[in-house]
Design brief:
Blueprint lengths: L3 E5 L9 E9 L7 E4 L5 E6 L4 E5 L8 E3 L1 E4 L6 E4 L4 E8 L4 H5 L10 E3 H5 L1 H12 L3 H15 L8 H12 L6 H8 L3 H11 L4 H19 L6 H7 L5 H12 L3 H8 L7 E2 L10
Parallel strand pairs: 1-11
Antiparallel strand pairs: 1-2, 2-9, 3-8, 4-7, 4-9, 5-6, 5-8, 7-10
Helix pairs in contact: 3-4, 5-6, 8-10, 9-10
Length: 284
């Protein structure tokens, strides 16, 4: 398979639960090469196309290394280390925690910090996803298989309380700039009650979720600038006190400071090519 990094917008029935699909086909890295799976506001579903995904270290340090044909990962605050020797290909689905009950059958809080085999959560559907995606002829066909099977799986009525959904969307839209007290006030709930419901439905407290959303915005802006944006400017744009604050948060959530992260990961974080518009039937 030729090297690729492509993106697809999910079908309308899946969009309330998944932000996008990313297809990747990466060449082998040098011996010992690893990729960091960083904290983000999305749960992860990975469907491999060739060899299994090798996770050398999980966000939960107690979890042993493992190999996965399909993987589901919850929200987390430390990186996973993915071994890439030999190259890799697959599809990564960015799942909203608000859709965890509808697509996965359980709240996102039950997956917090965990990496699980897809079959442990999706049952036989995980194997069907991998088999049918593997048989598809090209990226649009693969993405349509994911659309079909996730649409079949989705139970739209299984959603968190509207207050949780509002608070989560507000927090993400602000890039983590809205504090827990303000979120609670806007929902009409107490801060303590909102935190409890977040722990169940999201897997993080509002305060920690804000940290992850702010970090994710900073990481994406750094990526979009190809690592060239001054860190002091990036810190201001993302609501950090100063460059030192940004660097500390990057080290805590990514495991290394931003400049070093970019130097080690730039080959893995190029902007994907959006294929959605290439197939007009996708929107019908």
């Amino acid at each position: 398979m030729e090297p690729a990094y492509v993106r697809w917008r999910p079908a309308p029935a899946v969009r309330p639960f998944a932000a996008w699909y990313t297809g990747y086909a990466q060449p082998p890295l040098p011996a010992g090469g690893r990729h960091r799976g960083l904290p983000s506001p999305y749960l992860t579903l990975i469907i491999t196309l060739d060899r299994p995904l090798r996770v050398a270290a999980h966000p939960d340090p107690a979890a042993p290394p493992g190999q996965y044909d399909t993987l589901i990962g919850g929200l987390h605050t430390t990186p996973a280390l993915i071994e890439q020797v030999g190259g890799s290909a697959g599809i990564q689905v960015a799942l909203s925690p608000l859709g965890a009950r509808a697509l996965l059958g359980l709240p996102a809080g039950e997956l917090a910090g965990a990496d699980l085999h897809g079959t442990d959560v999706l049952g036989p559907l995980a194997a069907e996803l991998r088999e049918r995606v593997g048989l598809a002829a090209d990226w649009p066909a693969r993405f349509r298989v994911v659309d079909e099977l996730l649409t079949r799986r989705a139970v739209p009525g299984l959603l968190p309380a509207p207050e949780v959904a509002f608070a989560w969307r507000r927090l993400c839209a602000s890039g983590g700039a809205v504090g827990p007290a303000e979120l609670a006030g806007e929902t009409g709930w107490s801060g303590r009650y909102l935190a409890r419901r977040f722990a169940v439905e999201i897997g993080l407290s509002p305060k920690v979720a804000a940290r992850v959303a702010r970090f994710d915005r900073a990481r994406r802006l750094l990526q979009d600038s190809a690592g060239a944006r001054p860190l002091a400017e990036l810190a201001v744009a993302c609501g950090y006190y100063d460059q030192a604050h940004l660097t500390r948060e990057f080290a805590a959530l990514a495991g290394l400071p931003p400049a070093r992260w970019w130097a080690e990961e730039f080959r893995n974080v190029q902007s994907p090519v959006d294929l959605t518009g290439a197939d007009s039937a996708h929107e019908r």
